[in-house]
Design brief:
Elements lengths: L1 H11 L16 E13 L6 E13 L4 E7 L4 E9 L2 E2 L7 E4 L4 E10 L2 H4 L3 E11 L7 E7 L3 E7 L19 E10 L11 E4 L3 E6 L5 E5 L5 E2 L5 E4 L2 E6 L6 E6 L8 H18 L10 E6 L13 E5 L12 H20 L9 E2 L2 H20 L12 H14 L21 H22 L1 H14 L4 E2 L1 H12 L12 H9 L5 E8 L5 E9 L7 E2 L4 E3 L1 E3 L13 E3 L2 E6 L6 E3 L8 E4 L1 H14 L5 H16 L5 H8 L8 H13 L11 H22 L7 H16 L3 H15 L10 H11 L10 H23 L44 H16 L1
Parallel strand pairs: 1-11, 18-19, 19-20, 21-22, 23-31
Antiparallel strand pairs: 1-2, 2-8, 3-7, 4-5, 4-8, 6-7, 9-10, 10-16, 11-14, 11-15, 12-16, 13-14, 17-18, 23-24, 24-25, 24-29, 26-28, 27-30
């Protein structure tokens, strides 16, 4: 029946958009078009409000409908009518009932609606109401003050699911799509009422004309067929700046207060470069969207862009303005990533396309847009002028993988495929980042496996051939195999990219591969066994289809280490000539898994890291450092071995390795982790990392290098040095703030957040004076970190002092000529002190001896 309704809707709408193929929805009345006439009153004093008249064209989706149920919240409903042609069929004795508590408007009819599939009849619901607008950005429509030659205000909307009802009465099903036709009145200058000259909706302006009392009426063309969360409205006295793409008519327009327009140049130039990269990547002279992309800077705390929107976007003001003396390098990275990700979403499919492209699985679209955002960001940061010389995402790939892995281990985390047909706006907030980063990480793993050029050619070819059609995960994987599987690009055991993707999308979490090298035979046998990784419970068997790549220390007679092409399911054993050296899995760290080696192999790796760490590429060093912290936190690796491997860090100069080490150190704070951390052990780890980070801190703390990579590295090192209570760092930041307070110099924006953290530790009342938007963001982040640290320290037990304090390892790495049988065995899970294998008996004897001596 729904297909008949969809066909009928195509005939009555004024657009050429087509309907999503879905099962019959559980509404008896279906909206076809919303016509909104809005008269906003922005008051200088008192509450602002708007009057509105909405006409909803609907059809009956079931027989004998005599009650129409709409969603409406915090609205002052004045009149309601329902027209069939020109005849009002509302029940005059009981016209409507409005339940403000549950947010429902019930309309009662004196005659039943006729089912559209039989009668082809449509009805018009006419509702007039008014709405008081406040500054709460979580209520759908809100008002925000800004300074531009005095205090002014703007109206703006954020109609994510369950928020449109605060804007106007509607059928708030996120899968319902309809045409929207706006008419907006611009109120003239009057006493107590603010004049506004900027009105933006989701459609292009058609006409404007003056009426009595100098009102200006703006008529907009009917929008394309969209869902409620894709609707937008903005009303202010903003000005704008704009840029256009090189080869298409795509235009980005940023709106903001006139006195701040110069601060939008950075984001405009960045947006132009990303648009040009996308067009070059697509290899098709096709605009991203029909009409301009309007971006509104809102002076309130907003959480990124609206996921489903394409031509009217809002974001917090400091995510669009770039002021060198206030914008930190982290904030700059955040604003560029968000815009790159949103432009990728728009390119992958939006309602404003000439031929609309739809995705069955929007979680998959979110992952692809995240991956592409990092891809374009990598080219932008490296100054690449043409994608013919593309650079793999490498560093960004490892960052997104570490973010995903830090969240993806818990037993309650769902598999990606469970989101199935879930709309992107319906993904729970707690899983949003995980879905984006994990999907992107799995794509990065596949890209590294089949080759970057092949992967990107297959991806862009697929997107281009699906314009105006549906994109599904299954269809994508089929085409990926078709474009990439060759004799040289198929796994030894017959697996393909689609089989690997299917394996990872259908299982939650990720695995750890235990590597055991049998060195008592020639060639050596390498045993691989996977388990599902978790911080809080015993390993469990898992069945991920894992692409294996590896490198060896001594590759003179290596069988297949240059491009090994096989996958493992549960266990796998292969032969390799290691010649007494180590083997390292997961070349370039692109695989979405962790690796734990036998003790002897770990000691060989530790020896190489200590003596010649540059012989191992930085991505693999970074991954191993993060894995060591994770394995220790999970109780899989003992403390002394972890310290021996990490001992080389005071020689490490790579930003990506230190970034991985910093995120890895946070893993030992995982609630309930099997390492059984206590306050004494945590203090020992802090002191150990103090010794490791101190040389790097001393080297870069006073540098003035302003390259983005250097700024970010310096920011991370200073933040971590203070996190582990490195005293020179703490003193320096306190001194910097004292100098700032006494007007001697400005506070470095890159270390501002860390400075706030240091001050909060000693003064809980810090931060009550005025801050700008950039400082407020860092202040809130600092407060959050301090609360999390206090909660962690409160929850862990005191423990008891460890006699053998945690110091830099002095254990000699094994000589490759001597092998012990126990070195080839898997590390055992320790019983005490978070996995630290303690030499208990000698310590007890030493303690007794000390007590006896004291008694004498």
């Amino acid at each position: 029946m729904f297909l008949k309704v969809a066909l009928a809707l195509c005939l009555v709408t004024s657009t050429t958009a087509f309907f999503i193929e879905e099962e019959c929805l559980n509404y008896t009345v279906y909206p076809v078009q919303y016509e909104l006439t809005i008269i906003p009153y922005v008051l200088y004093e008192g509450r602002s409000y708007y009057d509105c008249e909405t006409i909803i064209t609907v059809i009956a989706n079931a027989p004998n409908v005599q009650i129409i149920e709409l969603d409406a919240k915090d609205l002052d409903i004045k009149t309601v009518n329902v027209y069939y042609n020109d005849r009002d069929i509302i029940n005059k004795f009981r016209p409507f009932e409005y339940n403000g508590k549950v947010g429902k408007l019930y309309i009662y009819l004196r005659e039943a609606l006729q089912q559209y599939s039989i009668s082809k009849i449509q009805y018009n619901i006419k509702i007039s109401f008014s709405k008081q607008v406040e500054s709460d950005s979580s209520s759908g429509i809100f008002i925000a003050p800004y300074e531009d030659g005095g205090t002014k205000h703007l109206f703006a909307t954020r109609l994510s699911p369950n928020k449109a009802r605060y804007f106007f009465p509607c059928f708030e099903n996120p899968r319902f799509e309809a045409v929207f036709k706006f008419r907006v009145y611009q109120v003239p200058n009057r006493k107590g009422v603010q004049y506004a000259n900027t009105s933006l909706v989701i459609a292009k302006e058609q006409t404007r004309h003056k009426v009595r009392d100098d009102y200006v009426i703006i008529e907009y063309i009917p929008s394309s067929q969209v869902a409620l969360h894709q609707v937008g409205f903005h009303y202010s006295q903003f000005g704008f700046r704009q840029v256009s793409a090189k080869n298409t008519n795509d235009t980005i327009i940023v709106w903001g207060p006139n006195n701040k327009l110069k601060y939008y140049d950075f984001i405009l130039i960045f947006g132009e470069k990303i648009m040009n990269m996308i067009h070059e990547y697509a290899s098709v002279n096709r605009p991203l969207v029909y009409g301009p992309i309007n971006i509104v800077a809102v002076p309130l705390r907003l959480d990124g862009y609206e996921v489903g929107s394409w031509n009217l976007l809002t974001n917090r003001e400091n995510r669009l303005t770039y002021i060198p003396e206030f914008t930190s390098i982290k904030q700059e990275e955040h604003m560029t990533f968000e815009l790159a990700q949103q432009l990728c979403r728009i390119w992958l499919g939006n309602p404003g396309e000439i031929e609309r492209t739809r995705w069955y699985e929007e979680w998959f679209k979110e992952g692809v847009s995240t991956y592409l955002a990092y891809y374009f960001l990598t080219q932008y940061e490296q100054g690449i002028q043409t994608l013919r010389h593309r650079i793999p995402i490498g560093i960004h790939g490892l960052q997104m993988k570490n973010i995903a892995m830090s969240q993806d281990w818990h037993h309650s985390t769902p598999a990606l495929i469970t989101f199935n047909r879930t709309l992107a706006v319906e993904i729970p907030a707690r899983y949003k980042e995980l879905v984006q980063m994990k999907t992107a990480s799995i794509l990065w793993m596949i890209e590294n496996w089949i080759g970057s050029d092949k992967f990107h050619m297959a991806l862009v070819r697929y997107i281009n051939t699906r314009r105006g059609h549906y994109i599904s995960l299954k269809d994508f994987m089929t085409n990926l195999d078709h474009d990439t599987v060759e004799c040289l690009h198929q796994f030894f055991n017959g697996s393909t990219a689609s089989k690997v993707l299917d394996s990872w999308f259908h299982q939650p979490g990720y695995p750890v591969i235990h590597v055991n090298v049998l060195r008592d035979r020639t060639p050596n046998a390498v045993q691989l066994k996977q388990h599902k990784f978790s911080f809080v419970r015993e390993d469990r068997d898992s069945h991920y289809l894992i692409p294996i790549s590896y490198m060896v220390q001594n590759n003179q007679n290596c069988f297949n280490c240059y491009q090994p092409r096989f996958t493992i399911d549960q266990t796998y054993t292969f032969e390799e000539n290691l010649n007494g050296g180590w083997i390292i899995l997961n070349t370039n760290a692109s695989g979405y898994y962790r690796v734990n080696y036998d003790t002897f192999t770990w000691k060989l790796i530790a020896k190489t890291l200590k003596e010649a760490h540059l012989s191992i590429n930085e991505l693999n060093r970074a991954q191993m450092v993060n894995d060591v912290f994770a394995l220790y936190a999970a109780g899989v690796m003992n403390q002394s071995l972890a310290v021996e491997i990490l001992d080389y860090l005071d020689q490490e100069l790579s930003p990506v390795v230190w970034d991985s080490a910093i995120s890895g150190f946070d893993l030992i704070k995982t609630p309930g982790a099997s390492c059984n951390i206590n306050k004494y052990l945590y203090k020992d780890w802090q002191e150990f990392m103090q010794a490791k980070v101190a040389p790097m801190y001393n080297q870069i703390a006073t540098e003035i290098e302003q390259q983005s990579v250097s700024r970010m590295f310096r920011s991370h090192i200073i933040s971590f040095a203070c996190a582990v209570d490195l005293q020179p760092c703490l003193n320096q930041l306190r001194q910097s703030y004292d100098n700032y307070i006494h007007r001697k110099h400005r506070l470095d924006p890159d270390t501002r957040e860390t400075c706030y953290e240091v001050l909060y530790r000693s003064d809980a009342n810090f931060g009550r004076q005025g801050f700008n938007a950039f400082e407020v963001e860092d202040k809130v982040s600092a407060e959050r970190k301090i609360r999390k640290e206090k909660q962690f320290l409160y929850q862990i037990p005191m423990g008891s002092p460890v006699l053998d304090r945690l110091v830099m390892s002095t254990t000699n790495a094994p000589d490759s000529t001597t092998e012990k049988k126990e070195d080839t065995e898997q590390p055992t899970v320790p019983a005490t002190h978070g996995g630290a294998t303690q030499n208990f008996a000698p310590n007890v004897l030493a303690l007794l001896f000390f007590i006896l001596c004291s008694m004498r």
